[in-house]
Structure formats: C-alpha cells, structure tokens
Amino acid sequence: MTDSKYFTTTKKGEIFELKAELNSDKKEKKKEAVKKVIASMTVGKDVSALFPDVVNCMQTDNLELKKLVYLYLMNYAKSQPDMAIMAVNTFVKDCEDPNPLIRALAVRTMGCIRVDKITEYLCEPLRKCLKDEDPYVRKTAAVCVAKLHDINAQLVEDQGFLDTLKDLISDSNPMVVANAVAALSEIAESHPSSNLLDLNPQSINKLLTALNECTEWGQIFILDCLANYMPKDDREAQSICERVTPRLSHANSAVVLSAVKVLMKFMEMLSKDLDYYGTLLKKLAPPLVTLLSAEPELQYVALRNINLIVQKRPEILKHEMKVFFVKYNDPIYVKLEKLDIMIRLASQANIAQVLAELKEYATEVDVDFVRKAVRAIGRCAIKVEQSAERCVSTLLDLIQTKVNYVVQEAIVVIKDIFRKYPNKYESVIATLCENLDSLDEPEARAAMIWIVGEYAERIDNADELLESFLEGFHDESTQVQLQLLTAIVKLFLKKPTETQELVQQVLSLATQDSDNPDLRDRGYIYWRLLSTDPVAAKEVVLAEKPLISEETDLIEPTLLDELICYIGTLASVYHKPPSAFVEGSRGVVHKSLPPRTGSSESAESPDAAPSAGQAAEQPAVIPAQGDLLGDLLNLDLGPPVSGPPLAASSVQMGAVDLLGGGLDSLLRSDVGGSPAMGGSGFTAPGPAAPAAMGAPLGSGLGDLFDLTGGVGTLSGSYVAPKTVWLPAMKAKGLEISGTFSRQVGSICMDLVLTNKALQVMSDFAIQFNRNSFGLAPAAPLQVHAPLAPNQSVEISLPLNTVGSVMKMDPLNNLQVAVKNNIDVFYFSTLYPLHILFVEDGKMERQMFLATWKDIPNENEAQFQIKDCSLNADAVSSKLQGSNIFTIAKRNVEGQDMLYQSLKLTNGIWVLAELRIQPSNPSFTDLELSLKCRAPEVSQYVYQAYDAILKN
Amino acid sequence: MKMIHSLFLINCSGDIFLEKHWKSVVSQSVCDYFFEAQEKAIDVENVPPVISTPHHYLISIYRDKIFFVSVIQTEVPPLFVIEFLHRVADTFQDYFGECSETAIKDNVVIVYELLEEMLDNGFPLATESNILKELIKPPTILRSVVNSITGSSNVGDTLPTGQLSNIPWRRAGVKYTNNEAYFDVIEEIDAIIDKSGSTVFAEIQGVIDSCIKLSGMPDLSLSFMNPRLLDDVSFHPCIRFKRWESERVLSFIPPDGNFRLISYRVSSQNLVAIPVYVKHLISFKENSSSGRFDVTIGPKQNMGKTVEGVVMTVHMPKAVLNMNLTATQGSYTFDPVTKVLAWDVGKITPQKLPNLKGIVNLQSGAPKPEENPSLNIQFKIQQLAISGLKVNRLDMYGEKYKPFKGVKYITKAGKFQVRT
C-alpha cells in the first residue's frame, strides 16, 4: 500500500471530496485526507481552498497528523493570513507541551509562517523556548530568531532576541552553539555593519570547543564564522589553525573546504620560516586531492576552489599533477576544470607528462574538450619557456591529423606563441599556409591572416594569400575583415612596390563598401596615415608589440586575495566577489586577507608609499571603515563657518546613493571591521591606494609639469604641483585638482575646480572629515559666479588646525566632501606633512641635546633620501624655507652632519640628524635619522624631507 | 533566506515530479533555466551542477536517473548544498530500498516528512539515518498493514535520544540478541594505462564499510597491521581524531547499523599494483569501410588471487555501424545506437586468456575515425586489499558481551581505463 494512490484522484470534484473527508468524524479518514492534500501540494497543485478544513484538524494528539497539518500551514499561511490566525492558539499551547519534540516542532513551524499579524504572537513563546531547559528546543528556537528576523527585523531587535542569541554562543550544548552561530551569521548578512558576531579570544575558544562536538553542518557554520575572525597575532592564528586542522579529515567535503578556507586565510599571518607553516602546507594537499574522488558535482566545486588555491599557493599541489589527469568518462565540466589546473601546475619538471596527456586529449571525441586541450598546449608553451619547442612540434603533429577543428585551434594558439617568442618559430609558417583553405572559423582565419601580415616579408606569396581572402571580403566576419585590413597595410609597408593595388582595394572595401563603423574608422585612419606620413604609418602599424605572458589568464592578485576569503562559496565557483553577482548584496563587505604580523619587517624599508604591511605595524587605533563611512555621511555639508544649512533632503539622497555604489568602490576595503578589529592591528589597505594616486606624493613628476604654484623659495614653503584629486568621471563632470601650501603661518588648500559637464555648476561647499591633525576649512568655499561648462576656477581655501581630530590611516589622509548643485562627491587625498611645520620650530641647542637623549632609541627611525646632490648649505636653506630649522652643523670624517628640529601644529617636536657626504660626488644618498615622541609621524616627515629636497 | 530555498525533483524526461519549498513558493518556471542547460549539455551527466539565473542559483546533483535541483537565493557554500542533496538521496535509498521516481511517488508523504525533518529554514536539522528513523519510521509492508489496522502512526513521538548527546549518531537502548560487528575493506583502483601498457596514473580509493549490530554503548578500537598506508583518510565523525594522530588506532563509539567508517586514498606515489593487462589492436583501414578489433585480457599483479567479474566496455567511434566478433569466453553485445561495446568476460583463467576478435564495420563513405576508443575495464578480486592494508584486531570496551567479529576484503576496478 503506497502513497501513489493519493495521486489518482484527478476527477472534477476532487476538492469537494477532500473537503468532505477532512470533516469526517473518523480520525483515520481525516489523516488519509490530509495526506492526499499534502500529496497534491507536492506536485504543485493548488489546494489552498481547503485551508479552514485542514486547520481544523490541527488540534490533535496524533503527532503525525499534527506534523502534516503544520506542513500544510507553512505552505499556505501566506495566502490565507486571516485564516492562519486561527492556528495561533494551538501553537502557543504546543509551545508549553511537556514533550520537547512538540515544543520544538511548534516553535519551528511558527517561524515558517510568514504572516506579519502572526509574528507578534510569536514573541512570548519564542522567548520561553530560547531559555528552554531542553537543548533541542533551544537550538530550534535559535534558528527561529533568524526566521523571524527575515520577516520583521525591527521586532527582533526591539524584543532583545539578538542579545539572547548572542548569549547562546556560550551555551553548554555544542549543537545550540552551532545553530546560534548560524542564525547570527545569517542575520549579520543583512546587517553588514552590525557587530553581531563580535568575536574575541574567549568566544573563539568556545567556538573551537563546540567545533569538535557538533554535527557536520554545525561545523560548517562555525568554520565559516571563524574565517571572519581576525587573530591578533601570528601565535593566535597558529593556535586556531592547529585546532582546525583535524577537520581536514572529515568525511563531509563542505566541512573540509570550510576548514581549508580558515587555514588558507590564517596562514597569511604565519611567517614562512616557521616550521609549522611547512607542516600546514603539507597537510593541505591530501584533503584537496581526496575531494577529487567524490561525486562529480562535488569535484566541480572543489576544482574551482583548487584553481584559486593553486594560484595563491602553488607549492601545495605542485607534486599532485597526476590527480588532475582527465578520465574519458568524467563529465565535461570536470574535464575542463581539470585541464585548467593542469596548465596552472605545469612547470619545467612535469611538462613532458603534461604534453603527453594533452596530446592524448586532443584525439578525444568531445569537440569542446579537444579544442580546449589544443589551446592548453599553447598556454603551456607560453608559460614554460623551455617547453615551447616541444609544444610547437606537438601542435604541428596535430595539424598533420587534418582534423578540421584541431587544425583551426592549433593555428589560433600558434599565433599567440609567435607573439610570445618573436622570430623563433617562423619556420613553421609554411606548414600553416598549407592549411589555409580548410580554415572556416573566423578566429582561425583572423589568426592566420595576422600571421601572414606580421611575417609578410618572409612569405613569398603573402600578397597572393591575402588577395585570396580579399575576394570574399564582405562575407567575412568583422574580426576577419579588421585583421585583413591591418595585414594588407602591414604588407604594403613592408613591400610597397608590388602591393599598391592591393592596399587601395582593401582601403576602398573598408571605407566605401562597408557599413561597419569600426571597419570604416580603421580604414580611414590607415588611409590618412599612409597618405600624409608613410614613415609615421610605419612606426604606428609596425610598432613592436608588447609580449604576452601567462599572467593574462591569472586572476588579478587583489581579487585573488579576496576570493581566497570566499573559498567554498558561490563566489569561489564564479571567481567573482559576491558583490559582483549576488542579488541584493549592496551591503556586502569586501574581505581581505590578514596582513602578516611578523616582527622582522619593521620600518627599514625606505619606500615612502605606505604599504599595508607597514601600516599594520603601527599600534594605532584606526577607525574601522564602517565608522568612516558613517562620519562622512554625517558631515554637515553646509559651508563650515557660518553658512546657512543646506536643503537637507537632496543632500541626503545623494549621500545614500553614494553609499550604494560610488563610495563602495572608492573605499574598496576590508572586512566589516568593528573597532575591536581595528584595535588588534588590522588595517584597511584599500583606501590608501586611491588616495595615494591622487596625492602629491609622486613629486618626482614635478619637473614634467609647468609648476603653477610658486616653487619653494625662502619666502614660502615648498608647494607640490597640483594633481587631480577628483576625476570628472567620478563626480558627474566636476574635476578637482589641487595642492597644499603654507605661507607665513597660514595653510592653504589651492584648488582648481573645472566643470567638464554640460550644465552650469553652482552652490559649492566643502567639508573635511575629521583627520589626524584637525585640518578644517577656515572659511567657506567661495566660488563667486556659477561655473559654466568647460570653465575653471582657481581658489585658495585657507585652512586651520582647530577641527576635530581623529587618527587616520595613513596619518596624512584627508577625506573631503564637496557639494554642488548636482550632487555630493567624496574624495580623499594625502597632504604633505610640511604644511604643518610651524614657524617657531627652532629648538634651543641645549634643549635639543637634552631632548635627543631623552627620547628612547626605539623611537628613532632611519631613512635614506636617494639621489640628492645638494651640499649641506643648500640643503639647510631649502629646508628652512619649509620651517625645518638647522640648529647645528658638524663635520665628522668628511661627512656633514646637520642637526635639525621642527614642530607640528599640534605641538609635536621632531628632531633630525641629516648626514651628507659632500666629498664623494658619486654617493648622493642622504641619511636621515628622526627622533620623535610620536614615532608614527616620522615616516611622513621623511616624505616631506624627500619632497622638499628634490624640488 | 539561507541555504536551500526550494527543491525540485526532475526525471530524465524533464517532468518535475516533486517540489518542496522551505520558504515561499518558487514557481516551477525557474526550472526552465535548468532544462535549457540540460538541452545544451546533451548528455545528462554533463549538466553543470551550478547554474545561475537572473534571480536564483540552481545547484543540482544527478543521482539514480533523478535530478535533485535546489534553488538558492543568496551566497551559500555550494558544497554544503551538494552534500546535503546527496544526503537526501542516500536517505531515500535507505528508506525505500531504492532512490527512484516510483519509490518517491509511492512514499510521497514520508518524503515530505523527511524533507521537513532534514532541513529547517535552510539549516540541516537531522540528517543521520539513525535519528531520522527514530523520528519517522521507514515504510515496511508489515508496518503499513499494521498501521492501517491499529491506526498507529509512523511518526515517532519521543525525542530522538542521539540528537543532543555528544554522540548524535547513536541512539540509546540498542538491543540485539546476536551481537555482531562486520567490516568490509573495499578498495577500488583508479588507473589510466596508456597505449604501450605503462601506467600513466593510478591510485587506490579505499573505504571501510561497517555493519555494526551491538547492544548498548560499545566503544571499539580497530587497529591495523600497517597503518602507515593510511596517510590520507577521511573519518566518520564518530572517530576520535586524537587517538588516530597519536596511536594510529581507530577508536570510536559506532553508529547503529550500516555506515562508512573511513575512506582513504593510497596515492600514486606508493606503488599501486595493476592486476590485469590488456593487449589490444584496434585499427581502421584508410578508404575502406571496415576495421580490425582484437583484445586479450590477462592477469598481472593479482597476488595469486583470481580476477573475476571482468567486464570490458568500449565507446566505439560514431562511424562504427556494427561489429562482428568472436569471444573465446563470455559474451559480448554492441549497441549500434549508443555505439557501446560491452564484453562480459567473467573469470580470468591464466591458462586460457579471454580474447575478443573480429571485424568492425564502418559507415560506408565516412572518413576513417580519428579518435582511439578507451577501454573501460571492471573486475573484482575477493579476499584481497590490493594496497596490502590488513586489519590487526578489534577490541571492544564498555560492554560485557562477546561480539562476533568479521573482516572481509575486496578489490575492484574503479575508473580503470586503457587507452588504445
């Protein structure tokens, strides 16, 4: 007796019949009727009309019947909210049932009824169940909080359920812990900025304990949660790794991959010299390989992830090439992935094996796979230089098979090999030309034409070959047409005498008979080039091409690092960050790998650019990105001094908009760092990069520009040339470039506003975010007339240093908001520190000596100023212009030593010793030692020195 | 919401025969994207497991001629979903003896109850067969009859005992009159052999499947003669990892009934013995519509045991019309539609090696096939674990009775391919 009988009632009066049966007095008949209803539901039939009758069956002692009714309720409550209220009482009663199974069932089902009216009744029973004595009920209730949050987030917060949920992380039962973590992670997903999962070493310890004891699914939740934690140092990272490693031997592949994610991420913090680092690397290989013996679907996901891991740390799987060999009955999606990884692992050591395999694959049945195998041979040639010759001969063998699609693919890749190794394998051109007639795919035809054009001087009958293509010019695809045009022009430039007619012909075909704008454009350009300046044409058309390398198909490193944080997720399958494809992920926070925290790489590196590694060492309290965003958005965007308040609504709109897109990409940043994370030495490498580009740091470029601001003289301090801070692209046509200056005690921000839009701009205002030295505009931004399109205006904005202070990273980072009648725009820039050097920064000699001794040696920082051929006096006077004062000068063993002091606007003194070697003209590096009670400024003082002395 | 939003079960002819929604109802039309992918893939095995649609992701597995298609709405670990779907299929297999459309349709209400019990709000709830069976009784012919007479239900109403203990895989109060513990050491050889007979790639995938029927809470220790062979192992959650790390002993409180204790891999770095060799000559004449086929299978490193259950399957090139062969042993079939040649050889006797020989007829006028077919070989060797793994002893603690113990070894061909 089977359930299939339930499907047989497809007669007309089915619903009526069921209705009658549901209202039957006989229990058995009722149950059978509910089963029939459920059966109809499973195949997508609409049985919602029976709602009241089914709900009537709910009050029963029969657990099976109850479950069935619950199943029905969950499905249809949404469409019958008024009716669903009828069920509430039974739920509330069931939540008090002595049997924990029924309590749990009730709370579970209630959460699945997505009806607003009902959710309010849920709160009390849920609160009780969260504190139930039975862990089975507690763990079910934990999940219910997540469900409720999805229906009504505000309600959950108001009722304090989130706190209760957080408490459950410390529950004694591992299953409850796992479910609480899962629920919190889910809620946190919709609130990226909240610090719901604010992990600390204690809670991490609890999670690690629960990890060993909970179910496999719970382990996945916990591991994914651990992956978001940022250990405070390498020791903590190692100890977590040690406790996670046993998960690599779990039978559930999802557990294994989540564990791999945690390890790959935390490994980043371990020093490579550590023995443990090597051990860990060794432990990672076997589980990854084992994933490949699972079901094909699992293999596929595993392979996509291995592809990332191999790019990040090739050493893990470098000896495991053979496991990626393709079996003929692998599904095609597995075959293609394996092939890709084989190429990534290919090296001089194993290339012979790989090529033998690839050649084998090239004779398989599946056309797509064969094509990819042929391409793979080409990629091997490009990747492993020593193998190029073998690859080419393998490809030639394949061309000999005359299998049409193999030949075409081979020609496409040989073109790439020519690009990589010019003038090496041209001997094969003859063989290629033999196959000209069999090429029917545009890509292959285009590749062949490129080869003929590129090597026209070596192919005797190049003109004939190209001419033969020209006959059917209009039937070719655009790709081929473009290539043919270029090839014939190349041919003409190489052998002008015989090919004049041909080039005329192709140019007229392209410009007169074609309606493809790309083709016409290219045709016209060539025509004009050839007619006006054939020498220039030669330089343009026959210019040396950049070599191609295997990097072209590697994932870009920053994206790779981000994807490593997403191992095991959909992002890792698509090789795109979640923000790029997950619907509704506006709030998705970018993740990044933790910086290495080894102590060996201290401030020795003289490079000025603040790298993520250096920044991480500063024991600074750096505000988390979330806060920064908040700050910027809260800026009062009116003129800061006494301007009237702006129309708030429009400004707000703009701000919200920006949060969605613009700022997100501008401040491409890290884990949704809570302040605690920031405190643990974690910094966002992201925001520094765009800022550095726009900042006047690269002052070496100075001489390329006509310096508009006065070059540093004795009267005023050095002013860097203006650079673009806000490109027009990012600000709806408003371009802002600028620089900073200091003259007789006052700091100025010299701005040029350019309107590159088509409409007039007006109502300008400017505001700064809080910053390290309290820089703030001392007056409103005065733009007297509206800015017409294509007009520029120069403004000198006076600044003071009485604004509110917040430590930035890098220290001299300034985040600026500029508003006009169109929108609000944000940018950040780095200001040179010397604008903060005050005029009374000359220290007394005695004082200097005492202070120098007084500041501990750890605070001393050494820098090198490279390639500066000034003598001591020139240096001294140049620096004095920017308020760096020389207190004493000594000559020790042929070296000039300058002792200098400077004071920042906030009263910080910096003492310097500058060593110059005038006697040795070939040795032009100056050595700078800086001592300061706040050593984090040293690096920026050095940058200022460097900028001033080199201009 | 998290994890799996909906699940559709689809048969090979593209009928959706069951749907389950954990949140709101997702229209069946979402499956159109799946059908599209299926059409593109031609072969059912080649449908990609992760498909993106404008509003959802479809993650699917293909098991026993059924597609399990889950609908996902947010970023989610795909392996999690795939593992879970396989677990669902395993559970159906376990409950109904087979995971087929008929079995699922015949037990649709149990299926529905199971799905509800296995996943709550997208969080897996109870996926251990032991626990599920306490919550929802599997159907037996006898029970259905009894149920319909007495009106008793097949839903348990006690809290499953294992659910919350630290050993969630075992229920309390297990009782047997005969206490038995059986272990099957099963090894499969995956290998690719090239034209000349040398091994391109070989590894052993081993598992130890257990059938444990022991009363109470037995605590078992299983030790091996040569545990060093096991350097790449995946464990059932019941195994104490620390003990294995330090002593190389499998120490565990077993689940009740059938389960997989460990799976392991002996990789190509160690020498993998290849128990059979194949001599082959498959050739097609240029400009003629025929070819020759001559294959002989012989024993190689089989440690003195008999190689049996030998079956060879070959996907012949498309141009092959039919094959006229003579087998010295066993029987062969050739399916002219799928172009699959299957030769059921049986046992190999070294004195008289099995041979299959004859003429291949090609479509007239078709070009000579370029590809060389791979030979897929299956075989079995009883009483042998080809890696040499041997169980040393099994000890039981915690219970007083003396169980009956047994270990069986078997070696099989996994993906064993010979290129020609």
TrEMBL record, chain B:
Please state where this protein is localized: Golgi apparatus; Cytoplasmic vesicle membrane
Principal localization?
Golgi
- Output the InterPro entries linked to this UniProt entry: Adaptor_comp_med_subunit (IPR050431), AP2_Mu_C_sf (IPR036168), AP_mu_sigma_su (IPR022775), Clathrin_mu (IPR001392), Clathrin_mu_CS (IPR018240), Longin-like_dom_sf (IPR011012), MHD (IPR028565)
- Keyword Protein transport found: yes
Work out whether the entry's keyword set contains Cytoplasm.
no
Q: What biological-process GO terms show up in the record?
A: intracellular protein transport; vesicle-mediated transport
Q: What is the superkingdom listed in this entry's lineage?
A: Eukaryota
What keywords tag this UniProt record? Cytoplasmic vesicle, Golgi apparatus, Membrane, Protein transport, Transport
Which Gene Ontology cellular component terms are annotated? Answer: clathrin adaptor complex; cytoplasmic vesicle membrane; Golgi apparatus
Q: How does it sit in the membrane?
A: Peripheral membrane protein
Ranges where the MHD domain occurs: 178-419
PANTHER family under this entry?
AP COMPLEX SUBUNIT MU
General function of this protein = Part of the AP-3 complex, an adaptor-related complex which is not clathrin-associated. The complex is associated with the Golgi region as well as more peripheral structures. It facilitates the budding of vesicles from the Golgi membrane and may be directly involved in trafficking to lysosomes.
The similarity annotation says:
Belongs to the adaptor complexes medium subunit family.
Q: Under what name is this protein listed?
A: AP-3 complex subunit mu-1
- As recorded in Swiss-Prot or TrEMBL, the protein's gene is named AP3M1
